[in-house]
Amino acid sequence: MKVLVIGTGAREHALCRSLSQDPAVSELHCAPGNAGIARVAALHPVDQLDGAAVTALARELGADLVVVGPEAPLVAGVAEPLRAAGIPVFGPGKEAAQLEGSKAFAKDVMAAAGVPTARSYVCTTPEEAAAALDAFGAPYVVKDDGLAAGKGVVVTEDRAAALEHAAACMGAPPGPPGGRGRVVIEEYLDGPEVSLFAITDGTTVLPLVPAQDFKRALDGDRGPNTGGMGAYSPLPWAPEGLVAEVLESVLQPTVDELRHRGTPFSGLLYAGLALTSRGTRVIEFNARFGDPETQVVLARLRTPLAGVLLAAADGTLGELEPLRWSEEAAVTVVMASEGYPASPRTGDPIEGLDAAEADGASVLHAGTRSGPAGEVLTAGGRVLSVTAVGADLAEARAKAYAGVAEISFKGAQHRTDIAAAAAAGQQLP
Questions:
Q1: If you placed Cys at 90, which of 67, 85, 185, 332 could pair as Cys (CB 3.0 to 4.6 Å)?
Q2: Which CATH architecture describes the domain 190-319?
Q3: Number of helices (H) and strands (E), helices first, in the chain?
Q4: C-alpha closest to that of 88 among 199, 208, 207, 2
Q5: pLDDT at position 177
Q6: Which helix (H) or strand (E) holds 382?
Q7: φ and ψ of 223, to 5 deg
């Protein structure tokens, strides 16, 4: 099987790494990729948002499957011309991808499907936003309606900061111009958060194992929201039967609702969940594998990946055997550039990559590129995901941080508490 992966990040590196280990994959390509992906796949300098160019590349390569990694190409409709050309593609079409592309659309789908989520208001003016904030009270939760690379959500006790973020999202004063015109303001959901992925062909829904990520930039869940600073799996504190409950109350109803609307969702449905005092609630949906949770989920998957993704693409997911999983634990720690997430520094050489892997970690590249002399340089905010597996979370965590200790680049930053509480056996609230 010839497989083409679209994307540039650590999520795509994790996908490529798993696919490269699949005996069914005879050729692996990635567009545009990064310096780490280049070690396992042939790279192609194609604009990932250009559906015609991606389709032309897939045809040229004779791809048997195209896997679209990031949300932006999906929301831009890259999957449509691929499907029109008869090329199997893992990823939803443009309309179904609005489940991530628009928070307001996702709320509408959840309401129609009876999916439990936070009460919310869709606001288009600062006056509406102010009224919504007052209706729910602090902590205030303000979400950009559109794509924001995981950084469009503000949770704060500061009403003025909440209003400022709402204005920025809407493009209204005092925010900068160019906002999307509306914002979603919702009630705060208490309790620990869980990420649960499910692969679907639009009818059958196949949940994966749960993971937890860490969105704040600093230890102790302080600092600004980021795209994610680390993750781990399994979750020893998660209630028994959680996956079955979410499949029944969230994932299957959502997939069924989209199919009934005539916009079937085929690909990866990501449910961000809060285990609140009133039960499980959906925080948000994503239309693709999450980053950095993909790094730990795929590290535990034992079923070859390519056949599963192809079955989702061609509508035969219900014919697969149950997925097989390792009993081992996995932890990933994100190393980010100086200034991330506001203004990341780039262009610095990275040292110690081979030493980190010699210590038992897998170094998955996110924001990297190859330099003129073959060196690896930083090229984004989140630079690397250092991932390790072990007999338990404590062992996996120790291996991951040993890998981090081997790597250096100017201004490198990372959290030191990824999976610390779970590894110590602490029950989350």
A1: 67
A2: 2-Layer Sandwich (3.30)
A3: 15, 22
A4: 2
A5: 40
A6: strand 382-390
A7: 85, 180
Q: Residues 239, 298, 202, 195: is their CA dihedral positive or negative?
A: positive
- 117 pairs with which residues across the strands? 282
User: Could you identify the residue written with the tokens 């914002």?
Assistant: 183
CB atoms closer than 10 angstroms to residue 300: 19
Backbone angles phi, psi at 4, to 5 degrees: -115, 120
Strand-strand pairing, 2-7 and 27-32: parallel
CATH tag, 2-89: 3.40.50.20
Distances (CA, A) of 182 to 145, 169, 179, 302, 324: 6, 7, 8, 43, 43
Q: Which fold has domain 121-186?
A: Dna Ligase; domain 1 (3.30.1490)
**Ranges of CATH 3.30.1490.20 domains, the chain:** 121-186
pTM across the whole model: 0.92
CATH number for the segment(s) 329-423: 3.90.600.10
Positive/negative CA dihedral, 294, 300, 306, 311:
negative
- Using 70 as the pLDDT threshold, list the residues of the chain that sit under it: 148-151, 172-180, 427-429
Residue 281 β-bridge partners: 274
Task: Round to whole Å and give the CA distance between 19 and 16.
Answer: 5
Distance CA 327, CA 140 (A): 39
> Which three-class secondary structure state does DSSP give residue 3?
strand
Helix (H, G, I), strand (E, B) or coil at 209: coil
- The token pair that represents 6 in the structure block: 């679209």
Q: How far apart are CA 404 and CA 386, in angstroms?
A: 6
Closest CA to 48 of 64, 62, 34: 34
55: Cα within 13 Å, side-chain hemisphere: 14
373 class by beta-carbon count within 10 Å (0-12 exposed, 13-18 middle, 19+ buried): exposed
Residue 98 has what pLDDT?
Answer: 95
Residues of the chain with CATH 3.40.50.20: 2-89
Crossing angle, helix 159-170 and helix 126-136, to 10 degrees?
Answer: 140
Q: Residue 100: exposed, middle, or buried by beta-carbon count in 10 A (0-12, 13-18, 19+)?
A: buried
